[in-house]
């Protein structure tokens, strides 16, 4: 069972603002990218066409607190941790660390998603499929601090 996923990436010039700092909105893109990597590591996609009707995980809550700046060409580690798991809902904690030079935490984010079925013109919350749910567990409390 998995409760975490880590990915490291370099900050691109196009992700920075006129002050040379990563634009705040990019942290939400980083969270989504890490979430997709988490599902791929489990052998799935965030869009699950193998189910009838297909399933997806739209966002119902997103937040991010920024502590330090991140700049062009900095190396960034994005650490996804499963914070909460309910029958239809997952909440992830994201820890962002700059690993260029001395590693330092630069931001934290939360993302809450709901498992939904997609039918033409209709989206409905449904339980996370047992085969997927069995692969995901909540991270140990000491990692969530």
Describe the structure.
It is a single chain. This protein has helices at residues 26-41, 130-133, and strands at residues 4-10, 55-56, 59-66, 75-85, 89-98, 104-114, 116-119, 122-125. The chain has a single domain (4-143), classed as Thiol Ester Dehydrase, Chain A, CATH 3.10.129.10. The relative contact order is 0.24. The model has no long low-confidence stretch (mean pLDDT 96). The longest helix is centred in the N-terminal third of the chain and has 16 residues, at 26-41. The chain is mainly beta. A hairpin with a 3-residue loop joins strand 4 (75-85) and strand 5. The radius of gyration is 16 Å and the shape is globular. Helix content is 14%, strand content 39%. It has a 5-stranded antiparallel β-sheet with strand order 1-4-5-6-3, covered by helices on one side.
Number of strands: 8
CATH architecture: Roll
CATH superfamily: Hotdog Thioesterase
Q: What top-tier CATH class fits best? A: Alpha Beta
Q: Report the total helices.
A: 2
- Stretches where pLDDT falls below 50 for ≥5 residues? none
Q: What can be said about the biggest beta sheet? A: 5 strands, antiparallel
- Tell me the fraction of residues in β-strands, as a range: 35-45%
Mean of residue pLDDT values: 96
Structural class: mainly beta
Morphology call: globular
| Helicity, as a percent range | 10-25%
Q: How many distinct domains?
A: 1
Using only C-alpha atoms, the radius of gyration works out to: 16 Å
- Write the element-wise H/E pattern from the N-terminal end onward: EHEEEEEEEH
Structural descriptors:
single chain, 145 residues, mainly beta, Thiol Ester Dehydrase, Chain A, five-stranded antiparallel beta sheet, 2 helices, 14% helix, 39% strand, globular
